[in-house]
Amino acid sequence: MTVRLMDSRAIGPAMGAEVMSRRTRDPIASWFFALEELGEYVGIRFGRIPPGAAEVEWIYRPHTHFDGIGGMADILRGRGARVERLPQIKYPVSPSWLSTLRALPTYLKPRRPVKWGPMERGLAKGNASQPPTAVAWHIFDDRATTQVRRVCRKAGFTVNSFLLKHLTKAIRPFLEDQSSVVPWMIPVNIRGKVDRGRDTDVHTSYVGVKVQSYETVHDIHRNVYATLAKGEHWANWGMYLLGRYTTAGMRRYLIATGLGASQWNLGSFSNLGDWDPEKELTETDCLGGWLFCPPVFRALLIGAGCVTFHNRLSLTIQAHPDVTTDPAVPKAWVHNWVKEIEIDVASVLERGVTARSAI
Q1: Domain ranges of the chain
Q2: Cα dist. 173→7, 29, 119, 177, 199 in Å?
């Protein structure tokens, strides 16, 4: 296994001045520096499995300098790929400070964490300031990826809603109460309406979505788009920006007490979308299967990431060491996730658009 680290504590001297500037002047990066100061690892996980290989080459980009899309583009460009205009925001709602003001009361509501049931916790508690050891993944082939897309398109919901439904169902058996409402943070790409200088910099806000045990994919799809229609991603972006009026100690306090986000979240679910579907990138160091996973913190215990490269969808899950350090646990989650997806896809393809009760 090859690991290539690049975090804000281990970057080249040329970036030292930039790090100091970001730590003190960048209201977005300052939140991720606060997480580092609390002992968290803020590296975004990427992985590549070269053609014919079995081992993953793990690569990390610091969230202080990149978001998921920016990190993926930076890695591919560094390997000689020509990656030009990055994906832009798809939702028409414009930025508004009014949405931030309206959202302020939600940041003061009581936090209701979901409790875990019995599971393997690992031999020893891991070091949260290093990449998690509890990680697992799966890469679908070209045919299976196309089938997932076809099922979602015919049924009238997004691939993200479909994946989130089955991700939540895959993890429920590990919760103390399997009927619990499961809250997720879903990053939202806001490139096109926000300019941060470098196109690879953090251009990501988020919405919070709560998934009920009885909800269908259509329900989740409507809920996600309702939050976007209300401009919740802009409300949360505004809260990030208000960080410029807080001290480093205040930011650490808000994060440590769970008040740094609009709700308590079990984890984050992020999909970087479709990369090079025409398969025009032929650089040797870019070929193969690609993985992506958002970072995990004590406030976001699970990271679930997806990316499609050359029409092969990958799923990756990692767990914060406070949950487990045993790779068998996320491996079971991924196994369940893949099984739920495959069962639903097969059901739809066999019987048409009307799927089993999960849709």
Answers
A1: 99-274+293-351
A2: 34, 36, 10, 8, 40
Q: Convert the pLDDT of each residue in 65-116 to its tens digit.
A: 999 999 999 999 999 999 999 999 988 888 888 889 988 888 888 888 999 9
CA distances for 216 relative to 143, 154, 318, 356, angstroms? 25, 15, 25, 10
CATH code assigned to 99-274+293-351: 3.30.559.30
Short-list 145, 136, 147, CA closest to 305: 136
**E-state strands within 156-203:** 182-189
Q: How many residues does the chain have?
A: 359
pTM exceeds 0.85 for this model: yes
Do the beta carbons of residue 270 and residue 317 sit within 8 Å? no
Specify the amino acid at residue 121: R
Contacts of 250 (CB under 8 A, 6+ apart): none
**Residue among 174, 173, 169 at smallest CA distance from 212:** 169
